[in-house]
Amino acid sequence: MGNLLCSSIAVAVLWQTALGDCPISAPENGDLGDCPQTLSSGSSCVPSCEEGYELSGPARCAGHLSMPSCLPSGCNVSEAAVEHVLSLGNCPEWLESGESCELECESRFELSDNTSCFLGNLSEVSCLRVGPCPAGHQAVAGLCEPCPLATYKAVEGPGPCVPCPENSNTNSTGRSSLQQCTCPATFYEQRNVFDELLSCKPCPNNSAVVGVQRFGHQDCECFDGFVRVPEDNDLSLEYCRHAEPCNVSALLENLTGPEAYKLKMGSCSSYARLLPSGRQCSLLCDAGLGAQLGSDIFRAVDLTLACDDGDLVRRPTDGYLWCSEASWEVPPLVFLGITTAATILGGAAMEVRQHHFEGQYAKALRGNRGR
C-alpha cells in the first residue's frame, strides 16, 4: 500500500512537471510569503525574508522554477547618527553586511571603533574627545557634554561642572559663568563684596521680587490680592496676608429692589454679599431712569462700589438714593437749553460787534474824504 502511494505521488509530480507547474520550497532565511506550494507555469509570486535579509527578486515558473534568495541586508553609512563626524572616511555610502570601515572624526576627536554592518544594522561608534573639554562642558563617558541645568564651568579643562549657588538656576544647559546663575522670582540675592552670587534666599510667603533689583529682603513685594504685614514699608516684610473682602450685603439690600424706583444690581450681581478686595462693580437704574439723590435732579451720583482690604473706598453717597425720570430727562434738557441760549447770546454779541465795527469804518472813511 505504501509503495502504491509513493508511486501515485511520483506520477502526480511528473504530470505537473509535464504541464510546466513548479513545486516551491521556502528560501533559506525566509518563507513562502504569498507563494503557493506549487506555482503554475507562467506565473510568479513573492516569498518573504527574515529580518535583516532582503529578497533578490520574485519567484517565477516558466517550465522550470526561478527561485530568488534572501540576501543579508546592507547598511547606509551616510545615515549614521554620530556626533562630531567630519566625513565618511574610507567608508562607502553603502556598506555590505559583514564588512567594516572607518569614519573620520572632527579635529580633537578620535573614533572609538570601526563601523561594521551586520544584517542591516550598523554598529554603534562614537567620536571621543581628545584633550580637555571647553568651558560650559564636562567629560561624560569620553564625550564632552554640556553642563546640566543649575551648573556651570568657567574654564576649559578636565574638571566637572560646578553647581550654582543655593536655590539658583540657569536658563539653559552649557553655561560657562557664575553670572549665568540667577535666582527665581520668589527669591532675593545674597552677594559678596565682589558682587558674586552667594545664595538665593526665599521671600516671605505670597511675595516675590518685582523688577530687576533683588539685593535683599526689602525688594520682596506682596502678590496682588495680598496685604503687607507690617504695612509700614520702612519695616521689614514679615508676611503677606490675603486682603479682606467687603461685606456689601446690607448696602445692596437697602439700595436695590424690584420696584422701578429702586437701583438694580448691575455688575454687582456677582457680589451680592462679598466684594473682593481690589474689585469694583456698578449699580444701575432701569432704562429711561436716572439715579437721583433726594430731590436734587442735577447732582451726579456715583453708583460704583470699590473695595480695598475690607473698606469700601468708593460707594454711592449716603442719603435717599432712587431712580427717577426727572433725573434722566431734565438735566439733558437744561443742558440743551443753556447751550442753545449761550449760542444765541454769542451770535447776538457777534452781530452787535460787527455793526459797531462797520460804523467805525464808515466814520473813518468819511473823515478821510473831508480832508
UniProtKB/TrEMBL annotation:
InterPro entries: Tyr-kin_ephrin_A/B_rcpt-like. This is Tyrosine-protein kinase ephrin type A/B receptor-like domain-containing protein. The lineage of its organism: Eukaryota, Sar, Alveolata, Dinophyceae, Suessiales. Residues 143-181 form the Tyrosine-protein kinase ephrin type A/B receptor-like domain. It comes from the Eukaryota. Residues 1-20 form the signal peptide. Keywords: Signal. SMART domains: Ephrin_rec_like (SM01411).
